[in-house]
Amino acid sequence: MRARFDCFTFGFWPGALTLVVAAAFSPLLGKPAHAAAGTSFLPHQALYDLSLLKSRGGTSLDSARGRILYKFSGNACEGYTSDFRQVSEMDGGEGRSTLSDLQSTSWEDAEGKSYRFKIVTRMNDSDQSEVDGLAERTGDKITVKLTQPVAKTFTVDGKVVFPTEQIQRIIAAAKEGKSLLELTVYDGSDNGEKVYNTLSVIGKPIHGDKPGSTSDPSTTNDHMKKLTRWPVTVSYYDRDAKTHSGEQTPVYTMSFELFEDGVSRALVLDYNDFVISGTLGKFDVSDVRKAKPCK
Protein backbone atom coordinates (compact mmCIF):
# COMPACT_ATOMS: atom_id res chain seq x y z
CA MET A 1 0.00 0.00 0.00
CA ARG A 2 1.29 3.34 -0.91
CA ALA A 3 -0.38 6.54 0.58
CA ARG A 4 0.61 9.28 3.05
CA PHE A 5 -1.35 11.08 5.77
CA ASP A 6 -0.93 14.80 6.13
CA CYS A 7 -1.30 16.16 9.67
CA PHE A 8 -3.58 18.96 8.57
CA THR A 9 -5.59 17.41 5.77
CA PHE A 10 -5.75 13.94 7.36
CA GLY A 11 -4.69 12.46 4.01
CA PHE A 12 -2.73 9.45 2.74
CA TRP A 13 0.68 9.72 1.14
CA PRO A 14 -0.26 9.67 -2.54
CA GLY A 15 2.31 7.33 -3.71
CA ALA A 16 1.44 4.51 0.64
CA LEU A 17 -1.49 2.80 -0.30
CA THR A 18 0.30 1.14 -3.08
CA LEU A 19 1.23 2.68 0.83
CA VAL A 20 7.41 3.20 1.32
CA VAL A 21 17.29 7.36 4.89
CA ALA A 22 19.50 5.75 2.99
CA ALA A 23 22.54 7.17 4.76
CA ALA A 24 24.40 4.57 2.73
CA PHE A 25 22.74 2.73 -0.17
CA SER A 26 22.73 -1.06 0.02
CA PRO A 27 20.91 -2.93 -2.81
CA LEU A 28 18.87 -5.89 -1.61
CA LEU A 29 19.95 -8.31 -4.30
CA GLY A 30 23.29 -6.86 -5.30
CA LYS A 31 21.69 -5.12 -8.30
CA PRO A 32 20.65 -1.52 -9.07
CA ALA A 33 17.81 -0.06 -7.01
CA HIS A 34 15.17 -0.64 -9.67
CA ALA A 35 16.02 -4.35 -10.03
CA ALA A 36 13.82 -5.46 -7.12
CA ALA A 37 10.81 -5.57 -9.42
CA GLY A 38 10.20 -9.30 -9.06
CA THR A 39 7.06 -8.86 -7.01
CA SER A 40 3.81 -9.86 -8.71
CA PHE A 41 1.31 -7.25 -7.52
CA LEU A 42 -2.41 -7.99 -7.37
CA PRO A 43 -4.60 -5.47 -9.23
CA HIS A 44 -7.43 -4.67 -6.82
CA GLN A 45 -9.87 -2.12 -5.46
CA ALA A 46 -10.23 -1.46 -1.75
CA LEU A 47 -12.31 0.75 0.55
CA TYR A 48 -10.78 1.79 3.88
CA ASP A 49 -12.77 3.27 6.78
CA LEU A 50 -10.76 5.80 8.82
CA SER A 51 -11.32 6.71 12.47
CA LEU A 52 -9.52 8.32 15.39
CA LEU A 53 -7.73 5.70 17.47
CA LYS A 54 -6.35 8.10 20.09
CA SER A 55 -5.00 11.60 20.61
CA ARG A 56 -2.11 12.61 22.83
CA GLY A 57 0.08 15.53 23.83
CA GLY A 58 -2.85 17.79 24.68
CA THR A 59 -4.19 17.72 21.13
CA SER A 60 -7.69 19.17 20.93
CA LEU A 61 -9.15 16.57 18.58
CA ASP A 62 -12.54 15.08 19.48
CA SER A 63 -12.99 12.84 16.46
CA ALA A 64 -11.69 12.01 13.00
CA ARG A 65 -13.40 9.97 10.35
CA GLY A 66 -13.20 9.35 6.65
CA ARG A 67 -12.93 6.90 3.79
CA ILE A 68 -10.47 6.06 1.09
CA LEU A 69 -11.42 4.41 -2.19
CA TYR A 70 -8.26 2.96 -3.69
CA LYS A 71 -7.59 1.19 -6.99
CA PHE A 72 -4.28 -0.35 -8.01
CA SER A 73 -3.76 -1.78 -11.51
CA GLY A 74 -1.08 -2.62 -14.06
CA ASN A 75 1.75 -5.10 -14.47
CA ALA A 76 5.45 -5.36 -15.25
CA CYS A 77 4.80 -4.67 -18.95
CA GLU A 78 2.61 -1.58 -18.63
CA GLY A 79 3.77 -0.14 -15.34
CA TYR A 80 1.58 0.41 -12.27
CA THR A 81 -1.27 2.87 -11.80
CA SER A 82 -2.67 3.97 -8.44
CA ASP A 83 -5.92 5.94 -8.12
CA PHE A 84 -7.55 6.96 -4.90
CA ARG A 85 -9.92 9.46 -3.41
CA GLN A 86 -10.11 10.28 0.25
CA VAL A 87 -12.77 12.35 1.98
CA SER A 88 -12.18 12.96 5.68
CA GLU A 89 -13.35 15.17 8.54
CA MET A 90 -11.55 16.20 11.71
CA ASP A 91 -13.52 17.65 14.63
CA GLY A 92 -11.71 19.79 17.18
CA GLY A 93 -14.82 20.54 19.27
CA GLU A 94 -16.69 23.82 19.75
CA GLY A 95 -17.80 23.73 16.15
CA ARG A 96 -14.23 23.58 14.81
CA SER A 97 -14.11 21.00 12.04
CA THR A 98 -12.09 20.52 8.86
CA LEU A 99 -13.38 18.68 5.80
CA SER A 100 -10.80 17.62 3.22
CA ASP A 101 -11.12 16.00 -0.18
CA LEU A 102 -7.96 14.54 -1.71
CA GLN A 103 -7.68 12.87 -5.11
CA SER A 104 -4.51 11.33 -6.47
CA THR A 105 -3.43 9.51 -9.61
CA SER A 106 0.05 8.17 -10.25
CA TRP A 107 1.82 5.90 -12.71
CA GLU A 108 5.19 4.23 -12.14
CA ASP A 109 7.37 2.41 -14.62
CA ALA A 110 7.95 -1.20 -13.54
CA GLU A 111 11.73 -0.66 -13.56
CA GLY A 112 11.51 2.46 -11.42
CA LYS A 113 12.74 4.75 -14.20
CA SER A 114 9.73 7.05 -14.47
CA TYR A 115 7.00 8.30 -12.11
CA ARG A 116 4.03 10.53 -13.05
CA PHE A 117 1.72 12.01 -10.44
CA LYS A 118 -1.15 14.42 -9.94
CA ILE A 119 -2.61 15.31 -6.55
CA VAL A 120 -5.63 17.58 -6.04
CA THR A 121 -6.65 18.71 -2.54
CA ARG A 122 -9.56 20.83 -1.32
CA MET A 123 -10.02 22.01 2.29
CA ASN A 124 -13.53 23.03 3.44
CA ASP A 125 -14.80 25.55 0.88
CA SER A 126 -11.40 26.83 -0.18
CA ASP A 127 -10.03 26.67 -3.71
CA GLN A 128 -8.35 23.42 -4.65
CA SER A 129 -4.58 23.04 -4.69
CA GLU A 130 -2.72 20.89 -7.21
CA VAL A 131 0.61 19.14 -7.48
CA ASP A 132 1.40 17.81 -10.96
CA GLY A 133 4.70 16.46 -12.18
CA LEU A 134 6.97 13.88 -13.73
CA ALA A 135 10.13 12.31 -12.27
CA GLU A 136 12.57 10.44 -14.51
CA ARG A 137 15.68 8.50 -13.57
CA THR A 138 18.74 9.13 -15.73
CA GLY A 139 22.11 7.74 -14.71
CA ASP A 140 22.91 8.65 -11.11
CA LYS A 141 20.19 11.27 -10.69
CA ILE A 142 16.43 11.79 -10.92
CA THR A 143 15.06 14.85 -12.70
CA VAL A 144 11.70 16.15 -11.44
CA LYS A 145 9.64 18.46 -13.65
CA LEU A 146 6.70 20.14 -11.92
CA THR A 147 3.90 21.99 -13.73
CA GLN A 148 1.92 22.63 -10.51
CA PRO A 149 1.88 24.32 -8.01
CA VAL A 150 4.59 26.19 -9.92
CA ALA A 151 6.64 25.28 -12.96
CA LYS A 152 9.98 24.04 -11.67
CA THR A 153 12.71 21.55 -12.54
CA PHE A 154 15.16 20.09 -10.03
CA THR A 155 17.18 16.93 -9.41
CA VAL A 156 17.40 14.44 -6.53
CA ASP A 157 19.84 11.64 -5.80
CA GLY A 158 19.43 8.61 -8.10
CA LYS A 159 19.40 6.31 -5.05
CA VAL A 160 15.89 7.58 -4.25
CA VAL A 161 13.06 5.12 -4.98
CA PHE A 162 9.44 5.70 -6.01
CA PRO A 163 6.45 4.31 -4.05
CA THR A 164 5.77 1.05 -5.90
CA GLU A 165 9.44 0.14 -5.83
CA GLN A 166 9.45 0.95 -2.10
CA ILE A 167 6.82 -1.74 -1.54
CA GLN A 168 8.67 -4.16 -3.84
CA ARG A 169 11.82 -3.77 -1.81
CA ILE A 170 10.04 -4.18 1.53
CA ILE A 171 8.51 -7.45 0.31
CA ALA A 172 11.88 -8.63 -1.04
CA ALA A 173 13.50 -7.84 2.32
CA ALA A 174 10.72 -9.66 4.19
CA LYS A 175 11.15 -12.78 2.04
CA GLU A 176 14.88 -12.74 2.79
CA GLY A 177 14.14 -12.66 6.51
CA LYS A 178 15.43 -9.11 7.01
CA SER A 179 13.93 -7.04 9.83
CA LEU A 180 15.18 -3.55 8.88
CA LEU A 181 15.26 -1.64 5.61
CA GLU A 182 16.34 1.95 5.00
CA LEU A 183 15.23 3.77 1.86
CA THR A 184 14.96 7.32 0.58
CA VAL A 185 11.56 7.86 -1.06
CA TYR A 186 10.08 10.43 -3.44
CA ASP A 187 6.29 10.34 -3.95
CA GLY A 188 5.35 13.85 -5.09
CA SER A 189 3.67 14.73 -1.80
CA ASP A 190 3.42 18.15 -0.11
CA ASN A 191 4.49 20.72 -2.75
CA GLY A 192 6.12 18.10 -4.96
CA GLU A 193 9.62 18.85 -3.66
CA LYS A 194 9.72 16.72 -0.51
CA VAL A 195 12.00 13.69 -0.16
CA TYR A 196 11.67 11.38 2.86
CA ASN A 197 14.13 9.16 4.63
CA THR A 198 12.32 5.99 5.73
CA LEU A 199 13.02 3.16 8.11
CA SER A 200 10.94 -0.03 7.72
CA VAL A 201 10.74 -2.53 10.56
CA ILE A 202 9.51 -5.93 9.37
CA GLY A 203 8.01 -8.48 11.77
CA LYS A 204 7.78 -12.25 11.58
CA PRO A 205 5.73 -13.72 8.71
CA ILE A 206 2.06 -14.55 9.19
CA HIS A 207 1.22 -17.52 7.01
CA GLY A 208 -2.06 -17.73 5.15
CA ASP A 209 -3.37 -20.60 7.27
CA LYS A 210 -2.95 -18.52 10.42
CA PRO A 211 -5.82 -16.06 10.99
CA GLY A 212 -5.12 -12.66 12.50
CA SER A 213 -6.66 -11.21 15.64
CA THR A 214 -9.29 -9.54 13.46
CA SER A 215 -10.69 -10.44 10.04
CA ASP A 216 -11.68 -8.33 7.06
CA PRO A 217 -12.46 -8.96 3.37
CA SER A 218 -8.76 -9.57 2.62
CA THR A 219 -8.30 -12.36 5.17
CA THR A 220 -11.51 -14.09 4.10
CA ASN A 221 -10.77 -13.86 0.36
CA ASP A 222 -9.98 -17.30 -1.14
CA HIS A 223 -6.95 -16.00 -3.04
CA MET A 224 -5.52 -14.05 -0.12
CA LYS A 225 -5.90 -16.96 2.31
CA LYS A 226 -3.02 -18.71 0.53
CA LEU A 227 -0.57 -15.82 0.91
CA THR A 228 1.98 -14.86 3.53
CA ARG A 229 1.88 -11.39 5.06
CA TRP A 230 4.16 -9.45 7.40
CA PRO A 231 3.55 -6.77 10.03
CA VAL A 232 5.43 -3.70 8.82
CA THR A 233 6.08 -0.30 10.40
CA VAL A 234 7.47 2.46 8.20
CA SER A 235 8.70 5.70 9.80
CA TYR A 236 9.00 8.80 7.59
CA TYR A 237 11.60 11.46 8.35
CA ASP A 238 12.02 14.87 6.76
CA ARG A 239 15.36 14.55 4.99
CA ASP A 240 15.97 18.30 5.17
CA ALA A 241 15.10 18.73 8.87
CA LYS A 242 17.97 19.70 11.16
CA THR A 243 18.37 17.89 14.48
CA HIS A 244 20.04 19.23 17.60
CA SER A 245 19.94 16.15 19.82
CA GLY A 246 21.15 13.68 17.21
CA GLU A 247 17.86 11.78 17.25
CA GLN A 248 15.15 12.80 14.81
CA THR A 249 11.44 12.33 15.44
CA PRO A 250 9.53 10.90 12.44
CA VAL A 251 7.00 13.13 10.74
CA TYR A 252 4.63 10.17 10.88
CA THR A 253 4.72 6.41 11.25
CA MET A 254 2.60 3.96 9.28
CA SER A 255 1.96 0.39 10.48
CA PHE A 256 0.13 -2.28 8.48
CA GLU A 257 0.10 -5.92 7.49
CA LEU A 258 1.59 -6.35 4.01
CA PHE A 259 0.69 -9.34 1.82
CA GLU A 260 3.27 -10.71 -0.59
CA ASP A 261 1.16 -9.46 -3.53
CA GLY A 262 1.24 -5.84 -2.30
CA VAL A 263 -2.19 -5.63 -0.61
CA SER A 264 -2.24 -3.95 2.81
CA ARG A 265 -4.64 -4.29 5.76
CA ALA A 266 -4.94 -3.21 9.42
CA LEU A 267 -3.58 0.32 8.98
CA VAL A 268 -2.43 2.41 11.93
CA LEU A 269 -1.06 5.90 11.24
CA ASP A 270 0.71 7.72 14.04
CA TYR A 271 1.15 11.48 13.67
CA ASN A 272 2.68 11.99 17.11
CA ASP A 273 -0.25 14.09 18.42
CA PHE A 274 -2.93 11.67 17.19
CA VAL A 275 -3.29 8.17 15.76
CA ILE A 276 -5.63 7.11 12.93
CA SER A 277 -6.96 3.61 12.28
CA GLY A 278 -7.77 2.39 8.77
CA THR A 279 -9.97 -0.69 8.48
CA LEU A 280 -10.42 -2.51 5.19
CA GLY A 281 -14.18 -2.48 4.57
CA LYS A 282 -14.44 -3.74 0.98
CA PHE A 283 -11.99 -5.61 -1.21
CA ASP A 284 -12.57 -6.50 -4.87
CA VAL A 285 -10.44 -8.15 -7.54
CA SER A 286 -13.26 -9.33 -9.83
CA ASP A 287 -13.33 -6.34 -12.20
CA VAL A 288 -9.59 -6.07 -12.84
CA ARG A 289 -8.17 -7.82 -15.90
CA LYS A 290 -5.31 -10.24 -15.35
CA ALA A 291 -1.80 -9.23 -16.27
CA LYS A 292 -0.34 -10.65 -19.46
CA PRO A 293 3.24 -11.94 -19.72
CA CYS A 294 5.78 -9.42 -20.97
CA LYS A 295 7.19 -10.08 -24.42
Topology (SSEs and partners):
Blueprint: E1 44-55, E2 63-75, E3 79-91, E4 97-108, E5 114-123, E6 129-138, E7 141-148, E8 152-157, H1 163-175, E9 180-185, E10 196-202, E11 229-238, E12 252-259, E13 264-270, E14 274-284
Antiparallel strand pairs: 1-2, 1-14, 2-3, 3-4, 4-5, 5-6, 6-7, 7-8, 9-10, 10-11, 11-12, 12-13, 13-14
Describe the structure.
With 295 residues, the chain is mainly beta. It has one helix and 14 strands. The chain has one helix at residues 163-175; strands spanning 44-55, 63-75, 79-91, 97-108, 114-123, 129-138, 141-148, 152-157, 180-185, 196-202, 229-238, 252-259, 264-270, 274-284. The protein has a 14-stranded antiparallel sheet with strand order 8-7-6-5-4-3-2-1-14-13-12-11-10-9, covered by helices on one side. A hairpin with a 3-residue loop joins β13 (264-270) and β14 (274-284).
In short:
This protein has one helix at residues 163-175, and strands spanning 44-55, 63-75, 79-91, 97-108, 114-123, 129-138, 141-148, 152-157, 180-185, 196-202, 229-238, 252-259, 264-270, 274-284.
